[in-house]
Amino acid sequence: MIIKHFRFFYFLFCFSILIFSCQPKKSTIGNTQQNKSEEINFKYLTKNKNYVSAHRGGSGIDDYPENCIETFNHLYNNGIKIFEIDIAETKDKKLILMHDNSLQRTSTGKQDVNQLNLDNIKNYYLVDDFGNTTPFKIPTFDEALKWGKEKSIYFMVDIKKGVDYNDIVSLVNKNKMQNQVVLVTYTVGQAKKLHQIAPDILLSVSMRNEHEFDEMMNSGIPTDKMVAFTGTKRNNKSFLDKIHDKNILVIFGTLGNLDKSNSAKNGQLYRDLEKDGVDIFATDRAIFVHQTINKN
Questions:
Q1: By three-state DSSP, how is residue 222 classified?
Q2: Where are the alpha helices (DSSP H) in 53-99?
Q3: How far lies 89's CA from each of 121, 162, 261, in Å?
Q4: Which pLDDT score is estimated for 247?
Q5: Which is it for strands 82-89 and 154-159: parallel, antiparallel or unpaired?
Q6: pLDDT tens, position by position, 217-267
Q7: What is the number of other CB atoms lying within 10 angstroms of the CB of residue 27?
Q8: Could you give the C-alpha distances from 48 to 38, 40, 45, 259, in angstroms and in order?
Q9: Cβ(54)–Cβ(281) under 8 Å?
Q10: Helix axes of 69-76 and 141-148: crossing angle, nearest 10 degrees
Q11: Radius of gyration, alpha carbons of the chain
């Protein structure tokens, strides 16, 4: 009898050890906590580093299409924190991530976005910049926001023609992403309208020259709600200093020809632009630029 009891308790002890050893180990610092400690600071005077904004959510990457959540995840795992995305509207008034009016270039679909309901669009697959069909689907704006919510990232939201600003802001508010979104504007009128609708959300505003700088300074929009896009043509350092004097960060677009230039191939272009005062690089070469500007 004693031996039987001993065997029984010994079995329970071994079983308990086995169960405990199979339990997933809990990290002392969760991903959310770690990410939140690395939040991006959009004020010049208190910024701690320079950043990269992945144009169209990431472009020019084999097997990773633009405006695609799986591409965001790939870039995020490689250090990218800012994603410029394009929002279009379907026939049934759903917001999706798509740059062109037509589905043809970036997916297996052929029609225009506004000719199809979301259910139809979800039948197609995204295509990368090299014509390769991927297993990835066209995401909705809501799906993208949910992906980014618990990460230390920002979305630069480029609103396509015909999309209601109120629908964009409503979805941002619904997902409580006001502090992780920058709304892209191209004119002072557009900036003023969006600020009126969403006074708590940052705006990317056009400051390519002195005239546009003065126009924005007189717009009535608080400077702490501005990030200055200075275009794709290099400005004098003194002009960028003037923007910094207002505690505003500078975004410069190297996308297109500059990213393809000889000085960009070895990274010298990006290092020179950092010296000029560029804080955020809008680029088609997100990982390379991130690695270049973060070299010790």
A1: coil
A2: 69-76
A3: 11, 8, 35
A4: 98
A5: parallel
A6: 999 999 999 999 999 999 999 999 999 999 999 999 999 999 999 999 999
A7: 9
A8: 10, 8, 9, 25
A9: no
A10: 20
A11: 23
CA angle in degrees (0–180, nearest 5) for 287-289-294: 100
- Measured CA to CA in angstroms, residue 273 lies from 60, 114, 218, 281 at distances of 22, 39, 28, 9
Comparing CA positions, the residue from 270, 280, 282, 157 lying closest to residue 232 is 282
- Mind listing the pLDDT tens digit for each residue in 8-33? 444 444 444 444 344 433 333 233 33
* Rounded Cα gap, residues 94 and 90, in angstroms: 5
Exposure string over 2-17, b if 16+ CB within 10 A, otherwise e: eeeeeeeeeeeeeeee
Residues in the chain, overall count = 296
pLDDT, one tens digit per residue, over 42-84 is 999 999 899 999 999 999 999 999 999 999 999 999 999 999 9
Question: In this structure, which amino acid lies at residue 275?
Answer: K
On whether the CB atoms of residues 264 and 286 are closer than 8 A, the answer is no
The three-state (H, E, C) secondary structure of 126-183, written as one string: EECCCCCECCCCCCEHHHHHHHHCCCCCEEEEEECCCCCHHHHHHHHHHCCCHHHEEE
Query: Could you tell me the pTM of the whole model?
Result: 0.87
